[in-house]
Write a structure and sequence with these properties.
The complex is a heterodimer of chains A (326) and B (328).
Chain A: E1 5-6, H1 7-21, E2 25-29, H2 45-49, E3 54-56, H3 61-72, E4 77-84, H4 92-98, H5 102-105, E5 115-120, H6 135-139, E6 145-147, H7 152-164, E7 169-174, E8 181-182, E9 197-200, E10 205-209, H8 213-226, E11 231-235, E12 238-240, H9 244-254, E13 257-264, H10 269-280, E14 290-294, H11 303-309, H12 313-325
Parallel strand pairs in A: 2-3, 2-4, 4-5, 5-7, 6-7, 10-11, 10-13, 13-14
Antiparallel strand pairs in A: 1-8, 6-12, 9-11
Chain B: H1 6-31, H2 46-54, E1 61-65, H3 69-74, H4 79-86, E2 110-114, H5 120-133, E3 140-145, H6 152-163, E4 168-174, H7 194-197, E5 206-208, H8 212-227, E6 233-238, H9 258-264, H10 267-277, H11 282-305
Parallel strand pairs in B: 1-2, 1-3, 3-4, 4-6, 5-6
Helix pairs in contact in B: 1-2, 1-4, 1-10, 1-11, 2-8, 4-11, 5-6
Classes of the chains: A alpha/beta (326), B alpha/beta (328).
The structure holds thiamine diphosphate and magnesium ion.
Residues 145-147, 175, 177-178 of chain B line the site of magnesium ion.
Chain lengths: 326, 328
């Protein structure tokens, strides 16, 4: 068996593969060059590709994303890094008003083939302004592809699809997953956008997650199996395109669903998925559609407080038990 | 000032008249209800667009604001495609999905008109960066208003362009006003763009934006510098908008006599005088004026006659595959 790699290494590897494959791919961001990124997710890139492919910028989120957009519209495929996803707010105009709208408002005259990568979510104790899970922000904007991988090989395979996409992609890398390990990706590995992964098959209940919530629900499924409850586990991988069909197919089999999400319940992505299941899966359901989401509070600093506001393995198991037993 | 041929002067006069006439038509069509929403007319700013454009090659990039009819037309958008867009027609530049504020002519590398103040300034830096990456000698221009100089994106963009020595020119159309507030009332320097240039180690350049020749010459210098790898320039053009900010604005806040004073320096008057000076006869000039009248009239009729864009347009062009599907 090949040696396992970390999620962190997979980010750099995924970018490197695209930089090698296509000379029009470039990286732009703060401290990503010789500094190799504050999360070391660009390790080795500057050494291999140098300053004509890896561009260090001032602390100018608007200029980073805006310049990447102008370059994307004129023949380049930029990968822009926004250090922490909380900082997307500093360039939100570009994310919400520019990248996703310009194709439409010009009647299809231009394309914006670019990726904005960003470190998302909690788990590292960085406090309220460096820990929020904001994938739901991106989901609210028609015209953005939203990707959030949970394993190293998915990071590489989805990075390939993201960079090759002719549409703008927000690529959420999860801080709490950087140190996790998984199988390496074979050469040429590409995971299509909008294809969920059924990580574990089951018949009694469907557990749906994304990025950070995947280790939680996989562990929950394991514990439930020990009690004789068979959980099907789905990793959405992308919020847009959303593989709703995969979820509906699963619910047709299990009749029950829990959506486990890190972002706040208030406006969280699970609400969109729940509305689809409640509507189109209504006749398959034997129990209400359930969401376990982050509490609707800013991210607290202390670990014991964060544990209170994020969904847990225990809460997932308890809820599944009640739904299946009830 | 460099010399320009009679032919050049005449062609600029022609272009500026077409823009003026098309915008007048837009105004009139608004009054008759054929143009909806809002329009921001650039009448009075024509010399900036035409002068700058005269210093560019066709493959150079131009980025504009919601007040961008003149820039789109100076780069080659037809008056018909402009008016048809304002009237939501199938033959409009963006097939009715952009409107006055988002005129775009990508075929002419006129990369769009943006209505979030300052947003396109970093994009112009991006197309300049792209030219460096692709090793072309294309230059990019961002046109923006005086008001845009107080937004963060302006400063982030110029700093980045200066640090990376990118071939981009930042052209401020200083028309003295934001929407209704004089720029001087909210800005700590006298020249909102030019006085900030020093902060990015760039020279202070303020010019008469109502003289097409002055604009052409100054932009040509900046273009030459940019193509030679000398980096960006900031050029502040002093000009004036003849109408109010938008269709909703009667411009009552302007001090008495100000408009009249600027009308004496109407860029069309200035250029007409130059034409006469260079020996073009009254007859020839009237000939140009009549020809432009006919061109604009025909554009109005053709735009009016075109069908509204198809209702299916509402649901296309979200994604590269042309569609809008976000889930299966
Ligand atoms: C970010 C942002 N804030 C405010 C507005 C509303 N707004 C539209 S035009 C305008 C004035 C802009 O003035 P200036 O940059 O001088 O351009 P001009 O209209 O004079 O050409 C304002 C405030 C906007 N469109 N975008
Ligand atoms: Mg102004």
């Amino acid at each position: 068996m090949a040696e396992l790699i970390t999620y962190r290494e997979a980010v750099a590897e995924g970018i490197a593969r695209e930089l090698r494959r296509d000379p029009s791919v470039v990286c732009i961001g703060e401290d990503i060059g010789a500094g190799e990124g504050v999360f070391k997710t660009t390790a080795g890139l500057f050494a291999e590709f140098g300053p004509t492919r890896i561009w260090d910028t001032p602390i100018s989120e608007q200029a980073i994303v805006g310049a990447a957009m102008g370059a994307a519209m004129t023949g380049v495929r930029p990968i822009a890094e926004i250090m922490f996803s909380d900082f997307l707010a500093c360039c939100w105009d570009f994310i919400a008003n520019e990248m996703p709208k310009v194709r439409y408002m010009t009647g299809g005259q231009v394309s914006v083939p670019m990726v904005v990568r960003t470190a998302n979510g909690g788990g590292l104790g960085f406090g309220a302004q460096h820990s929020q899970a904001v994938e739901n922000w991106a989901l609210t904007v028609p015209g953005l592809i939203v990707v959030a991988p949970s394993t190293p090989s998915d990071v590489i395979g989805l990075m390939a699809s993201a960079v090759r996409s002719d549409d703008p992609v927000i690529f959420f890398e999860h801080k709490a997953l950087f140190a996790t390990k998984g199988e390496p990706a074979p050469a040429g590995h590409v995971v299509p956008l909008g294809k969920a992964n059924v990580c574990r098959e089951g018949t009694d209940i469907t557990l749906v997650g994304l990025a950070w919530s995947m280790p939680i629900i996989l562990e929950a499924a394991e514990l439930l199996a020990a009690e004789g409850i068979s959980a099907e586990v789905i990793d959405l991988r992308c919020l847009v395109p959303l593989d709703a069909a995969c979820v509906l197919e699963s619910v047709a089999k299990t009749s029950r669903i829990i959506i486990v999400e890190e972002n706040p319940f208030q406006g969280g992505w699970g609400g969109t998925l729940a509305s689809i299941v409640a509507d189109e899966g209504f006749h398959d359901l034997d129990a209400p559609v359930k969401r376990l989401a982050g509490a609707s509070v800013p991210a607290p600093f202390a670990k014991h407080l964060e544990d209170q506001v994020l969904p847990s393995v225990g809460a997932t198991v308890d809820l599944a038990r009640r739904l299946v037993g009830g | 000032m460099t010399n320009s041929t009679k032919e050049e002067l005449a062609s600029w006069y022609d272009q500026m008249l077409v823009i003026r006439g098309t915008e007048k038509a837009a105004y009139d069509l608004f009054m008759t209800g054929l143009v909806k929403g809002t329009t921001h007319l650039a009448s009075g700013h024509e010399a900036v667009a035409v002068g700058a454009s005269a210093a560019l090659k066709p493959e150079d990039y131009v980025w504009a604001t919601y007040r961008g009819h003149h820039h789109a037309m100076a780069r080659g958008l037809s008056p018909e495609a402009c008016l048809a867009e304002l009237m939501s027609k199938e033959t409009g530049a963006c097939r009715g999905k952009g409107g006055s504020m988002h005129l775009t002519s990508a075929a002419n590398n006129m990369m769009g008109s943006y209505a979030i103040i300052g947003s396109h300034i970093p994009m112009a830096v991006g197309s300049a960066w792209s030219a460096v990456l692709r090793k072309t000698d294309q230059v990019s221009i961002a046109f923006f208003g005086d008001g845009a100089t107080n937004i963060g994106a302006f400063h982030e963009a110029i700093n980045l362009a200066a640090v990376w020595k990118l071939p981009v020119i930042f052209i401020c159309e200083n028309n003295l006003y934001m929407e209704y507030t004089p720029i001087s009332a909210v800005t700590a320097v006298q020249h909102p763009a030019a006085d900030r240039a020093a902060a990015y180690s760039l020279p202070r350049i303020v010019i008469d934006g109502n003289d097409v020749l002055v604009v052409r010459d100054e932009v040509a210098k900046a273009v030459a510098l940019a193509r030679a790898g000398g980096g960006p320039s900031v050029i502040e053009c002093l000009t004036y908008r003849h109408y109010g900010h938008s269709r909703a604005d009667p411009a009552k806040y302007r001090p008495e006599g100000e408009l009249e004073e600027w009308m004496m320096r109407d860029p069309l008057k200035v250029l007409r005088a130059r034409l006469v000076e260079s020996g073009v006869s009254e007859d020839e000039i009237t000939g140009i004026e009549n020809a432009v009248d006919a061109v604009v009239k025909e554009a109005i009729e053709r735009a009016k006659d075109a069908p509204l864009s198809d209702i299916s347009e509402a649901f296309t062009d979200v994604w590269a595959d042309g569609g809008m599907q976000w889930r299966n």
